[in-house]
Design a protein that fits this description.
This protein is α+β, with helices and mostly antiparallel strands. It is built from three helices and five strands, in the order H-E-E-E-E-E-H-H.
Length: 117
Amino acid sequence: MADKLTTLLVELAKRTRNGSFSWERTAAEGVYQASFLRYSVQISVRPALVGSEDYVVTILNSEGTVIEQAADTDFANRLQNALPLMSEMYGAARRQALRVDEAIDDILGELSKQVPL
């Protein structure tokens, strides 16, 4: 299972990077979700015991039951770049779910219409 989970993490990161699927907000603050036919994957961040933060990937079944969960620290022995990979994926999921780029584009559009001082 561990190797499959690592493969899943790498594939999710790759597809998040290239925009192959959509991340959405959840009812929980700072938790973002990608839905598939029978399962959902969530990514979140939590305070770490040592250091700054842990990034967590959670797999849920169609009833919303957590069936697997792993933090970046769980991948440390299997994936050399787990922390930056999950941090980047979390940031991209957050930007997509909150539509950050759309907000920036709107603000830039409004600024371009204003008369310069």
